[in-house]
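Data availability (excerpt). The following record was deposited with the supplementary files.
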Amino acid sequence: QVQLVESGGGLVQAGGSLRLSCAASGRTFSRYVMGWFRQAPGKEREFVAGISGSGGITITNYADSVKGRFTISRDNAKNTVYLQMNSLKPEDTAVYYCAADTSRTGYASRGSMAYDYWGQGTQVTVSS
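Predicted structure:
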């Protein structure tokens, strides 16, 4: 069983920055593929960013809408994955979820069905 707890959400003006954190339980965190997803009101949950598990070079991937503005990273010593969000836009407003894919170690899937553990979500609101 893996528990994920997000933090760092809040209200920020357009152009501002936030850093989300996701603390994970589990002795083998470094092996998990980790992802960030978001869901805005009335919309489906969408992939934001992913980072590969251990086993060589770290691979990250991003949704086109956040590429160049958001950065995903992980600190395996702290069992934590981060999402640094810069140049925030009102359309980034959503509940952000951290997710773990414990069955893979490579490239992070963009599909939510690949992830078997989810956090409770943290609200990010960007005002114009």
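Summary of structural features: The radius of gyration is 14 Å.
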